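We append the chain.
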Amino acid sequence: MKSTNNTFGLMLRKVNRYGTDYVIAELVRREDDHHAPRNASDMFNWERPKHLQGCQLENLVMEGFLTDPSQYGSRFIGYEPRYRNVYSADLVASERMAKTLRKIYNRARKDEAQTPEHWFMALCSTLRLSFVVECASEYPASSYDDNKWNWMSVNRGRNRYLQLIDEVTKAAAAA
């Protein structure tokens, strides 16, 4: 079996679903110095750093969006870490999900996280994430390998995350 040096980080993206813009920070991994990120699959738990052993990483995201300004005033919500698209989970996976979220939420509580960037940093520090990546291709292809990527530090990634939230907020205000 080939030994890989996997590191973990967040992939940023902005998507429109049903007329609402979402800012998504999704957990991904990088194999050695490969030019494209990979999904954070839980199939290869043995290829993880020791501090991530026993954590459920697959489908872990921060997925925020703006509330409807006509009902609540426009606020960015839903950015707390959660699991998305979990169609089935056995007892072991469910316990790992709860353990992982508990670690993140305990860190956020300790840091008194109340804003998206505080939650972003709580997630990064809890899981000791080492990078943030964003697709740099003008027209992204469906395969990660067929795109160009902008790799950045966690601090620079936090700033980019805030910039994406600001873009979504300004676009909604202009609409």
About this structure: The first helix runs from residue 69 to 72. The CA atoms of residues 59 and 87 lie 11 Å apart.
